[in-house]
Design goal:
The protein is of the alpha/beta class and 263 residues long. It has helices at 3-12, 27-30, 39-43, 57-63, 96-101, 118-133, 154-166, 180-185, 202-214, 224-227, 232-245, 249-260; strands spanning 19-23, 52-55, 72-75, 77-78, 91-92, 106-111, 139-143, 171-174, 191-193, 219-221.
Length: 263
Amino acid sequence: MDWGMQNRLGRLIQPDGHCFFLPIDHGYFQGPTSKLEKPGETIKPLIPYADGLFVTRGVLRSSVDPRNCPPIILRVSGGSSIIGKDLAHEAVTTSVEEALRLNVAAVGMSIFVGSDYEYDSLVNLGKLVDECQKYGLPVMAVTAVGKELEKRDARYLGLCCRIAAEFGATIVKTYWCENFEKVVNGCPVPVVMAGGPKCETELEVFEFVYDGMQRGAIGLNLGRNVWQHEYPVAIMKALRAIIHEKASAKEAEGIFKEEKKKK
């Protein structure tokens, strides 16, 4: 692996081999998402606990302090909105030259396996990897499912992750699911969890994150369960303990309760 590629990955993945990324790219198809209307204000107290920030170039320039931010993963795909015909109809919307100008640690784009635009998104991934390889820039492939949430099972996600790796992705971001080890074991590049089932309690979030780490994920890329929470710093600290301190779900719940009292 080229020195530049290793250096950029080293900025994102910590010495323990794990990572906790904070995605705030939701506005590229959802607009002003709840609690993310003013992204700069939302992320300000969270930045010290993030190993990386997944963001679009517009929000990066307008809302993130270049002198005080974690390494950046730049969202470079888009083209459809939540009110459009099909969220899967995406293209690469930001150039590699722009990513280098912004001094990012990696770029990220979505793939939509099994959708009407499967071919387009996979070819886009291949072309993006080709271009990024010239400059030692890692590519994170996001296994998106659009509105078809029922697809989140090990067989489907395992297929998506393997295909992303085969096309050259450096890291794959995917959903947690039952039998998550089947997804990880079939993917020859590191896997980061994007989220899991809808959770009613903090403990349920901690449980699926802990389970995913035990089954082979190298880390977490979790947004709404953090910055839409009433106590975002407390939940982020608790999740970070699972990722970097090998805390159990119950231990993380204890950390959350203690941190919540400090508000």
